[in-house]
Description:
It is built from three helices and four strands. It has helices spanning 10-17, 43-50, 74-81, and strands spanning 22-27, 30-35, 61-64, 67-70. Strands 2-1-4-3 form a four-stranded mixed beta sheet, with helices on one face. The longest helix has 8 residues, at 10-17.
Amino acid sequence: MDAKKNTVSAAQALALAREVDEIVATRGKQVIHLDLRKTRPDRETLKSLLIGPSGNLRAPTLRIGRTLLVGFDEATYRKFLD
Length: 82
């Protein structure tokens, strides 16, 4: 899924979050890891991590199996792609 080419609405992004076991989101230099098997954040928390200023899913977003990477952090991408 290329969130830059194919916009994903907030509702679609939240539905996508229900299909994964973990979300790793980057906000600036901060990397936030949510293990959805252990905790269920509320809708607003998920939206704050997944949705950008446009109201759509933040780009880049990458789904690897049951993990959703939101935003870009080189170390995080290396961890999941190597």
